[in-house]
């Protein structure tokens, strides 16, 4: 086996989440080919790997455009003839897999998170489930990033159990995301939320919790880091963000390619999301020794040992989130440091990126 394709819905995703996997496979002697829609990271990837641009409408479901994507996958894979395709994100997992079925190309899929379509059940949810069931029937392996997502797929008979396995998210480079010296306790306390600015990420609850905390405690800052006005039906408009900023509730930091410098300056990282695969930002933050506050929902709850490495709060409950934030504020510096150290230990033991990469190499070798 020689040629391996890694396919995602953006080059940004490959660069930020799968580059080390691509490099490790390359070092292991495989010819690695990257496939994704073109963006500003595509040229960076193309300097190191063979790269192909493919059309993919990430806005939603359009039958004509999605059919175009399947045809492009078919033509591309027929041309380059990969032995195996590693699919990540929903459209490669479905449409890329369908093309691979037609060409009898082996696939390994990664269900990295179910997103809005599974949070709010609708007719679209039923269509997506049908497409997953059809697409995944030919997969050699289907990885999930948490047990809850695996259970949901098995319960709905979207995939056979013997094909499935649970990974510790996408893993984290624990050598890159290292603990740093804690801030002095006389400085302003900083809560940081990293993610796309979506209502489903719990941004609204974060803002309401900030309003509650700020009515009692003045020396606290609430930060938001991540893309705004993204293509998503639950996206938060820029005007709404500006109203929160003008009210003095939040400091919006924009976007960055280096989250570590913002994590470094935070006392606690918060993600009150409604559902996740396994949030990479929480893994990175915990790896840097930061205590976490997140929701007790699939994906998020796996990263935190409640009351030991952080706190779990109820989903869509700003009052409970504010309570957990107050609990964090009321800890001594030593207690927070101990919580952060325990968070780091958990990540190194359970979520190191090496675990994920080894699982992939083992699965690829099993195809030979």
Provide the number of structural domains. 2
Structural class: alpha/beta
Poorly predicted tracts of residues? none
Arithmetic mean of pLDDT: 92
Number of strands: 13
What CATH first level of the largest domain would be assigned?
Answer: Alpha Beta
**Biggest pleated sheet:** 7 strands, parallel
Strand order of the largest sheet: 3-2-1-4-5-6-7
- Rg (C-alpha, Å): 21 Å
Q: Total number of helical segments?
A: 14
The CA-CA distance between the termini, in Å, is 7 Å
The CATH superfamily of the largest domain bears the name Glycogen Phosphorylase B
**CATH fold assignment of the largest domain:** Rossmann fold
Strand content: 15-25%
CATH architecture of the largest domain: 3-Layer(aba) Sandwich
* Structural shape: globular
Sketch the topology as an H/E string, one letter per element. EHEHEHEHEHHEHEEHEHEHEHEEHHH
Helix content: 40-55%
Give an overview in words:
There is one protein chain. The chain has 14 helices and 13 strands. By secondary structure, it is an alpha/beta fold. The chain folds into 2 domains: 3-171 and 352-366, Glycogen Phosphorylase B (Rossmann fold, 3-Layer(aba) Sandwich); 189-350, Rossmann fold. Strands 3-2-1-4-5-6-7 form a 7-stranded parallel beta sheet, sandwiched between helices. It has a 6-stranded parallel beta sheet with strand order 10-9-8-11-12-13, with helices on both faces.
């Amino acid at each position: 086996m020689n040629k391996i394709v890694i396919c995602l819905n953006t080059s940004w995703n490959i660069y930020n989440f799968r580059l080390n996997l691509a490099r490790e496979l390359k070092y292991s002697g495989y010819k690695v080919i990257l496939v994704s829609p073109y963006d500003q990271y595509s040229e960076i990837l193309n300097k190191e790997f063979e790269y192909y641009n493919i059309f993919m409408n990430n806005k939603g479901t359009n039958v004509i455009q999605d059919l175009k994507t399947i045809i492009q996958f078919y033509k591309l894979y027929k041309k380059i003839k990969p032995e195996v395709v590693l699919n990540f994100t929903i459209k490669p997992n479905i449409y890329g897999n369908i093309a691979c079925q037609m060409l009898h190309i082996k696939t390994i899929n990664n269900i990295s998170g179910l997103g809005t379509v599974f949070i709010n059940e609708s007719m679209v949810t039923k269509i997506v489930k049908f497409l997953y069931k059809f697409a995944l029937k030919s997969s050699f392996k289907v990885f999930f990033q948490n047990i809850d997502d695996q259970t949901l797929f098995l319960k709905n008979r979207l995939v056979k159990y013997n094909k499935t396995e649970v990974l510790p998210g996408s893993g984290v480079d624990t050598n890159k995301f290292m603990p740093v010296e804690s801030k002095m306790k006389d400085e302003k306390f900083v809560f940081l939320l990293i993610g796309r600015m979506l209502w489903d990420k719990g941004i609204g609850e974060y803002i309401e919790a900030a309003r509650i905390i700020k009515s009692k405690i003045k020396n606290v800052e609430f930060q938001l880091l991540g893309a705004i006005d993204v293509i998503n039906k639950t996206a938060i408009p820029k005007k709404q963000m500006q109203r929160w900023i003008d009210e003095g509730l939040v400091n919006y930091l924009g976007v960055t390619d280096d989250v570590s410098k913002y994590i470094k300056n935070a006392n606690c990282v918060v993600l009150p999301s409604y559902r996740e695969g396994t949030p990479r930002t929480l893994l990175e933050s915990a790896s840097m020794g930061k205590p976490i506050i997140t929701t007790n929902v699939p994906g998020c709850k796996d990263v935190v040992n409640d009351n030991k490495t952080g706190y779990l709060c109820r989903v869509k409950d700003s009052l409970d989130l504010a309570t957990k934030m107050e609990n964090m504020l009321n800890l001594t510096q030593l207690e927070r440091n101990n919580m952060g150290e325990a968070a780091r230990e958990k990540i190194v033991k359970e979520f190191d990126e090496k675990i994920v990469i080894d699982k992939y190499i083992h699965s690829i070798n099993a195809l030979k």
